[in-house]
Amino acid sequence: MSYKFYGGVHPSPRKNLTSDGAIKRVFVPKRVVLPLSQHTGSPAEPIVKTGDAVNAFSEIAKATGFVSSPVHASISGKVTKISNASTPTSNRALSVFIESQGDEDQDFKIRQRRDPNGLSGEELISIIKDAGIVGLGGAAFPTHVKLSPPKNRPVDIVILNGAECEPYLTCDQRLMIESPKEILEGLEIILRVLNAKNAYIAIEDNKQPAIYAMEKALKAFSFQPSAVGVKIIVLRTKYPQGAEKQIIKSILNRTVPAGGLPMDVGCVVQNVQTAYAIYEAVYSGKPLAERAITLTGSCLKEPVNIRVRIGTMLTDLVDFIGGFKKEPKKIIMGGPMMGLAQYTMDVPIIKGTSGVLFLSEEEVLRDKESVCIRCGKCIETCPMQLSPTTLMYRVKREFFGEAKDLGIAGCFECGACAYECPAKIPLLDYMKYGKARI
Ligand code: SF4
Ligand code: SF4
Q1: Which of 62, 184, 223, 232 is deepest in the core (most CB within 10 A)?
Q2: What pLDDT, on the 0 to 100 scale, is given for residue 102?
Q3: Which atom of ligand 2 lies at the shortest distance from residue 371's CA?
Q4: What percent of the chain has pLDDT over 70?
Q5: Whether 140 and 259 share a structural domain
C-alpha cells in the first residue's frame, strides 16, 4: 500500500560511495564547540562557566521552556570559553567551548539500566527531554514536544522515517542495517508514550539491505502491548519522499493542512536515528551527545559513515578520516537538495547534521541561468503545489505581499523546482530570499 504525493523529482542517488561501509566507531576529538541553539525553539542556558571541569555526557546547558532542549558535554575536559561562534546554519550562536586536558575518561558509562515497561508515559517523556533528544532527520525539533500532542489531537499512527531520500546520505540506511532491534525498541517507546497502536516503518525501494534487516528484526520482535501493529512500507524512490507531509500522504493518504502539523491528521513522524537515540536514553541513560553521519563526495580520500561526538569541528573530522584527495569546490552540511553550503570548515557538527558533502567542481557545475520559458515543470514538480515561477517573478520585483498571498510560506525549501528547471533559474534561492524578506 502506498499512495502518490504530488510532484517530486528523481535526482541521481549517488549513495554508492558509502552505502556498503559500516558505521565507523565514534571519533573522540580533543576539542568541541557546542552551540546552545542547535534545535528549534528557545536556546538552552549554560549551567557551567569558563574554567569548569566537565565530564562527557553531563548536562552543560538547560532547556529554557517547553520548546527547548538541553545540551550535554560530548567530551570530558575544561570549559575554555563561552562565546558566540559560527554554526552550520549560518547563524552565530552562543556556544560552550570544551578542550580535553588529555587524561580524562571519554567513554559513556551506563548511568541507569531501565526497563521501559515499568515507566509511565510522563516518565518516558521526561527522560527523552532531559536527554536533549531532537529530531535527527535535520529539523532538530525537540522530540518531547512532538510526543506530547494536546488531548484534542490524539495520535493513532506513528511513521518511522527511514526514507533518507536526499542523494549521497546513507547513515540512516546503515543504522537500519546494523541496529534494527535498537530502532524497534525506540519505536516501541514512542508508541507507548503516544498510546498509539499502529506504526509504519517507511523505507525507499533503493535500500534493499535495510528493508531486509528491518523485516528480519521485526519478525523476531514482540511489541508490548501485543495489540500493536507495525508494518514496513516500501516506498518508491522519489525526492522529497522523506519530507513529513509527503511521507504522510504516501502512506496514509492524509493531507496535513497548510501551516498545520502531522498531529492535525493523527500522526507523528520520527526519524530512525531519533528512535535509536530514544532507545539509548531510556535503556541506559545516555543523552544525545553523539550521532551517526555520512561524510562523502568525490573530494574525500575516504568517504565514510561514522559516529561523531556533537560539537566536533569539521576541520578536525576531515583530518581524522584522512583528508582530501582534491580541494572541494563546495562543502554542504546535509544533503545536496536541502543542505546548507558552508564558507568555512571551522563549524561544529550539530544535532541536526545528517551528513557533510565535499563536492568537486564537476559535481556542482551550475549551467548559466537563462530566461523562464514557461514550460511549467517547476509547477509540476513542487510537492506543495505552489507555482515557483510565479513566486520567483513576485520576489524579483519585490512584491513580497503578493508572494505571501500566493503561499510562499508553504515552501519548505526542498529544491525540487530548481533541480528540474531547464532554464537553470535558482528558484530555491528566490524562495528562501522571499520568505526571509516576509
Ligand atoms: S523549493 Fe519550495 S517552491 Fe520549490 S519545489 Fe520545493 S516546496 Fe516547491
Ligand atoms: S521550470 Fe523554469 S523555465 Fe519552466 S516555468 Fe518554471 S521557472 Fe520557467
Answers
A1: 184
A2: 86
A3: 3
A4: 99
A5: yes
Q: Would the CB of 416 count as within 6 Å of ligand 1? A: yes
Last residue of a domain, one of 284, 310, 336: 284
Using the structure block, give the residue that is written with the C-alpha cell 504525493: 5
pLDDT higher than 70, residue 374: yes
CATH assignment of the domain containing 165? 3.40.50.11540
CB 377 less than 6 A from any atom of ligand 2: yes
Per the model's pLDDT, the better-predicted residue between 36 and 114 turns out to be: 36
3-state secondary structure 371-408: CCCCCCHHHHHCCCCCCHHHHHHHHHCCCHHHHHHCCH
Counting the structural domains of the chain, the total is: 2
* Dihedral angle computed from the Cα positions of residues 149, 153, 155 and 159, in that order, rounded to the nearest 10 degrees: -80
Nearest-CA residue for atom 8 of ligand 2:
372
- Which residues are CB-contacts of 84 (< 8 A; sequence separation ≥ 6)? 92, 93, 94, 95
Task: Among 366, 368, 374, say which to mutate for ligand 2: greatest number of ligand atoms within 8 Å of CB.
Answer: 374
Residue 158: which domain range? Answer: 116-284
pLDDT one-digit tens code per residue, 95-137: 999 999 988 888 888 877 888 888 999 999 999 999 999 999 8
Q: What is the pLDDT of residues 270-321, one digit of tens each?
A: 999 999 999 999 999 999 999 999 999 999 999 999 999 999 999 999 999 9
Q: Is the CB of 380 under 6 A from ligand 1?
A: no
Closest ligand to the CA of 7: 1
End position of a domain, from candidates 228, 249, 284 = 284
Query: Would the pLDDT of 73 be above 90?
Result: yes
Q: Is residue 14 part of a domain?
A: no
Choosing from 411, 420, 435 the residue with most ligand 1 atoms within 8 A of its CB, the one to mutate for a pocket test is 411
Residues 299, 364 contacting (CB under 8 angstroms): no
Indicate the pLDDT class of residue 2, thresholds 50, 70 and 90: low
Write out the DSSP string of 124-159: HHHHHHHTT-B-TTTT--BHHHHT---TTS---EEE
Residue 257 and residue 135 share a domain: yes
Q: Which atom of ligand 2 is nearest to the CA of 379?
A: 6
The pLDDT, as a whole number, for residue 258 is 82
